[in-house]
Amino acid sequence: MNILIVDAQGGGIGRQLVTVLKQNFPGNEITAVGTNSAATAAMLKAGADHAATGENAVKVCSRRADVIIGPIGIVIADSMYGEITPQMAMAIGQSSAKKILVPVNHCDNIVVGVSEFNIGRLLQEVMEEIRKIS
C-alpha cells in the first residue's frame, strides 16, 4: 500500500505518523510531502521512503496514493497559517485515496464533537484505521 503523509509547519505530526507507521506496518511504502523543507526533513529523518516538498508534490503524490494521512488542515484551503494552498487542498480532496485526517484544533479550525485526545491517542486511532484497510 502506498501511504502519503502530508504535513506543514515543522512536520511534527507527520514525523510521528511516519515513525508509528514504520513500526506497525513496515511493508508499506511511505511518501512524505511537506509544505516546506522543515516539514519534509522531519518526516524524512523519521524514516519516510520518499519525500518531496511543495504544492506540485502534493498534487502528484495525491494521485498515486492509496491512503493520505495528515492533520485535518490539509483539506482546508489557506489553513496551517496559509501553508495549505487551495490547489493542495483540492488535490487531496479530489484524490481517490482513502483519507485519514487527524482532528487537531489549530489555526482557527475547530472540530466539534471530537474528544480532545492527546497526539499519542490520535496516532493510535490512525493505526486502527490503517489496520481496517490493509
Question: What can you see in these coordinates?
Answer:
This protein has a five-stranded parallel beta sheet with strand order 3-2-1-4-5, with helices on both faces. By secondary structure, the protein is α/β, with parallel strands linked by helices. Helix 1 runs parallel beside helix 2 (37-45), helix 1 crosses helix 6 (119-133) and helix 3 runs parallel beside helix 5 (86-94). The mean pLDDT is 93. The chain contains six helices and five strands, in the order βαβαβαβααβα. It is globular. The protein is 45% helix and 19% strand.
Helices and strands in order:
Blueprint: E1 2-7, H1 12-24, E2 29-34, H2 37-45, E3 50-53, H3 55-64, E4 67-71, H4 79-82, H5 86-94, E5 98-102, H6 119-133
Parallel strand pairs: 1-2, 1-4, 2-3, 4-5
Helix pairs in contact: 1-2, 1-6, 3-5
What can be said about this structure in brief?
With 134 residues, the chain is α/β, with parallel strands linked by helices.
Key structural traits:
alpha/beta; 5 strands; 19% strand
Order of helices and strands: EHEHEHEHHEH
Computed structural class = alpha/beta
Q: In which order are the strands of the major sheet placed?
A: 3-2-1-4-5
Query: Span from first to last CA?
Result: 8 Å
The count of helical stretches stands at 6
* DSSP, total strands: 5
Q: Determine Rg (CA atoms, Å).
A: 13 Å
Q: Helix coverage percent of residues?
A: 40-55%
Largest sheet: 5 strands, parallel
- Can you tell me the overall shape? globular
Beta-strand portion reads: 15-25%
**Low-confidence parts lasting 5 or more residues at pLDDT below 50?**
none
**Average pLDDT score:** 93
